[in-house]
Amino acid sequence: MRTIEWQNGTVVTVDQSKLPSETVTITLKNCEEVADAIRNMKIRGAPLLGAAAAFALALTAHSSEAESRERLLAELEKSAEIIRATRPTAVNLFWAIDRILSRAKDFSGSSRELAAFVVNEAQKVADEDVAVNRLLGKHGADLIRDGDVVLTHCNAGALATVDYGTALGVIRAAWEAGKRIRVFATETRPQLQGARLTAYELRQAGIPVTLITDSMVGYVMSKRLVNKVIVGADRVVQDAVINKIGTFTIAVLAREHSIPFFVAAPTSTFDLTNRSDSVIIEQRKSEEVTHVGSIRIATKSVDVLNPAFDVTPLKYVTAVICEQGILYKGDLGKFKSSIPTRE
Ligand code: MRU
Questions:
Q1: What is the pTM of this model?
Q2: Helix, strand counts (H, E) of the chain
Q3: Could you say which of 116, 134, 152 is where a domain stops?
Q4: Per residue in 247-261, pLDDT tens?
Q5: pLDDT band at residue 343, thresholds of 50, 70 and 90?
Q6: What CATH number does residue 68 fall under?
Q7: For a substitution probing ligand 1, which of 4, 95, 171, 193 has the most ligand atoms within 8 Å of its CB?
Q8: Pocket of ligand 1 (CB under 6 A)
């Protein structure tokens, strides 16, 4: 099964907050339920957020009783606002909403025809994500040599996408091409996407993986236990890559140890009209830091800072791998003019 699917007028997905101890699929029936699942990290990962946002609009269209095209468009705008307010950093969510709304506005037909069109467009967003990840994986696999040991952070795998993954898509493609590689996965405090999701996905795929805590990255690099880094992205802007908190630290350490640092991200994650200082970095609740699971580990009175993402300036990035190829320094600027950007 794909990570997210449209099934008979509902959206079916796996509840990622419960993995790996429980594999529970949830069925979402309306836009509010999708928004809740996003806020509660049942659905997470930039490309998956894009697909979920698209399907949220599809749910609104599918259940609408609007008798005019204008009325349905107004309902879609309302749902778009609800989804836009869930998480601010991953651009794919905004990209998918903008894409569906602009195509819906251009569509001329009855409200019923428009509803079917929106469902079909959402399905396209999901299908394209899988195709794009496979292509991106193929390009990226050329950078991986037999015997490489790759460090990755957070989860940029099948679970963060509709299927296959971005950073893990590159690793998967190299593995499928017969390269004997190994992976070091960071646990990724505070939400533990590395320990819970990446280690689980790689084990399922039979790819050798070693789990480390985030604070061990300097140690493994200084001991030459890894020779490449590949991470995903939540947003690629003019001057930086924005990704899970801890990515910047890993990039600086990689530079210090002359280890190539690659970012794997589809162009739906590109936001090349903006710079990093205009991006909202999501701040999450303090309990994620004061607790591990349901167990409190910190004193009750302590102040907490919990940014979900950080900003890695492009000078630390060896190349960005996308479905259109491998972009080295300077390529991103040239690339800017050739792709559709966010409105
Ligand atoms: O907070 P999350 O789990 O939604 O964040 C996801 C990430 O930051 C991933 O590392 C990723 O690179 C983006 S999804 C391919």
A1: 0.96
A2: 12, 15
A3: 134
A4: 999 999 999 999 999
A5: very low
A6: 1.20.120.420
A7: 193
A8: 44-47, 154-156, 160, 166, 193, 231-234, 243-244, 308
